[in-house]
Write a structure and sequence with these properties.
The radius of gyration is 20 Å and the shape is globular. The chain contains 9 helices and 15 strands. Helices cover 28% and strands 20% of the residues. By secondary structure, the protein is α/β, with parallel strands linked by helices. Belongs to the asparaginase 1 family.
Length: 343
């Protein structure tokens, strides 16, 4: 079957959609003393009003309603902000006069926030995240164009029902697929396994494919008032069981392991994780590789030890899904595996 192609252009000024912009800080709201400085800046110090004022072209795309939700460097994000954002988005989406929502965010944890919202917000209205790799004070800052692109996507009817999207450097990504792949490049966000959903440029939005896995209104998940404690450990040459044993002693609810290759685990770490599972702690195998998927290994070790495969989710997104699955009451491996196979 040929991929679905949907396109749209900016609406006429007489019938502009109304888009809510929720700002949380990040590099897009960062500032440095020197315009040539693209590192060592202070993130989250520029308010949403100034961000919007820097993009006068927005006036021809949408009516904007802005809220400053947080002013943080996203490296310091706590899961409680996911709950706040999900609640704000729900309240806005319930309004008949709001056609879409844009969230500005830091790049460091954008992929985690995007996936958490992708699983918890309950609306078909477009929810689009964006960010920047250069602070607002920099020469050739990328934030203004990314913000314009995100608002353009959120204003497009073709973005409805696609879950949470990420608009960045003219590309449109699904929250489930997108990852940060560079420490400095303006095309830092990619969807390595499946590619972007589409693109946005000069007021035009085009989707070459659609999201197939269940999301938003098709999930049972809600953002928690209290989030389970789920941590990540890594397998590597010479790895010991020290980190896993410490986490078990600390009383974590789940552990995601960033394994080598197809989620394979060093023998010492695997033995510790087996002991963790015996204590009732959920264990999920992901991969540190960066693309591909982790195949379930049948009797050894998954069935024998009660481990769960993360599929194509990286360790950080696997952590998000595991937290939400635990909130939803899925504790045993078969139920958890169904969650990872579905979402």
């Amino acid at each position: 079957m040929a991929p679905m192609i949907t396109t749209s252009s900016s609406p006429s000024p007489a019938a502009l959609p109304r888009i809510a912009v929720l700002a949380t800080g990040g590099t897009i709201a960062g500032s440095a003393a020197d315009a040539s400085q693209t590192s060592g800046y202070q993130a989250g110090v520029v308010g949403v009003d100034k961000l919007l004022a820097a993009v006068p072209a927005l006036a021809s795309v949408a009516q904007i309603e802005a809220q400053q939700v947080a002013s943080i460097d996203s490296k310091d994000l706590e899961a409680s902000l996911w709950t706040t954002l999900a609640e704000r988005i729900a309240a806005l989406a319930a309004r008949e006069d709001i056609d879409g929502i844009v969230v500005t965010h830091g790049t460091d944890t954008l992929e985690e926030t995007a996936y958490a919202l992708h699983l918890t917000v309950k609306t078909p209205k477009p929810v689009v995240m964006t960010a920047a790799m250069r602070p607002s004070s920099a020469l050739s800052a990328d934030g203004p164009l990314n913000l314009l692109g995100a608002v353009t996507v959120a204003a497009s009817h073709s973005a409805r029902g696609q879950g949470v999207l990420v608009a960045f450097n003219n590309r449109i990504h699904s929250a489930r697929d997108v990852v940060k792949t560079s420490t400095y490049a303006v095309d830092a966000f990619q969807s390595p396994e499946l590619g972007a959903l589409g693109w946005v440029q000069d007021g035009r939005v085009e989707f070459a494919r659609t999201v197939t896995r269940a999301h938003t209104t098709g999930t049972p998940f809600v953002a928690g008032a209290a989030w389970p404690v789920v941590e990540i450990v890594t397998s590597y040459a010479g790895a010991s069981r020290t980190a896993v044993d410490a986490l078990v002693a600390a009383g974590v609810h789940g552990i995601v392991v960033a394994g080598t290759g197809n989620g394979s685990i060093h023998a010492s770490v695997q033995a510790a994780l087996a002991d963790a599972r015996a204590h009732g702690i959920a264990v999920v195998r992901a991969s540190r590789v960066g693309s591909g998927h982790v195949m379930r290994n049948g009797a050894a070790p998954d069935d024998a030890l009660g481990f769960v495969s993360a599929g194509s989710l990286n360790p950080y997104k696997a952590r998000v899904l595991l937290m939400l699955a635990l909130i939803a009451g899925a504790y045993e491996p078969p139920a958890l595996q169904r969650m990872f196979d579905t979402y």
